[in-house]
Every structure is written in structure tokens, then in C-alpha cells.
Amino acid sequence: MRHLRWCQKALETSRKLAKQSILEKIGLAGIDGDNLLPARRHIRQNVAACRSDPSTAMEIESRLLANQVDTSTIDLETIVQSRDLCLLFDTLLGSALNRRILLLREIENRRCRKPS
Asked: What is the pLDDT of residues 27-36, one digit of tens each?
């Protein structure tokens, strides 16, 4: 159950990062080096405010639609953003499970060796 909640949270975060990445590709195309960092900061703030501010969310969605970015493009970018994180978590989870199984086997072996 915790794994499912964690994956859901990771996907939400990855979706936010995917939108940010797409907006950066759209918005930073013609910006010179001096204004690049402030523009990135502004995009990051807008994406973060998207959850709590409906007008910002609508602005972002309309900007994405105006640049022919549909939900499947966002989904694909989300998968790219979350792939490494989910692989790492699955590896850690598998490792913990293997350690638990080995410990249980060791406990069982020690119980069987004890004379009654």
C-alpha cells in the first residue's frame, strides 16, 4: 500500500516536472543567456502555483494547447521523468524483500538446529 502511494506521489511530481520541461522548451527558445535564469524561475513558480491557483492552471493549459501539446505528450514526458526514480525504488524494494527472506530462512535454520 505504501508503495502504491509513493508511486502515485512520484508520478504527480514527475507530471509537474514534465509540464515544466515542456514549458521551458516552448518558452526559452528565443531567450538570451542573461534572461534565461529568471525565465526558468518564473516557469517553475507558475508550475508550482498551478495546483492552488486555477487561473495559472488555465494559463498553462492554454499555452500548452496553443503549442499543440496534448495529454499524450505530457504523459510521455512524465514517463521519461519518472522512469529512473521508479526503477530505483523498485530495486530498493526488491533488495529489502530479499534481505527479509534471507533473514527468515536463517531464523528457520537456527530453530531446526536446536536440540529439543
From this structure: 888 888 888 8
- Answering whether pTM is above 0.90, one says no
Note every long-range contact of 75-78, with CB atoms under 8 Å and residues 24 or more positions apart, other chains counting: 77/18, 77/19, 77/21, 77/22, 78/11, 78/14, 78/15, 78/18
Residue bearing cell 523498485:
90
d(CA 47, CA 20): 6
- Hey, CA dihedral for 75, 77, 82, 87, is it positive or negative? positive
Opening angle at CA 24, ends 62 and 21, nearest 5? 90
Distance CA 42, CA 67 (A): 19
Cα 14-79-22 angle, rounded to 5 deg:
65
Q: Which residues, other chains included, contact 11 with Cβ-Cβ below 8 Å and sequence gap of 6+?
A: 78, 82
The pLDDT assigned to 97 comes to 93
Contact between residue 78 and residue 10 where contact means Cβ atoms under 8 Å apart: no
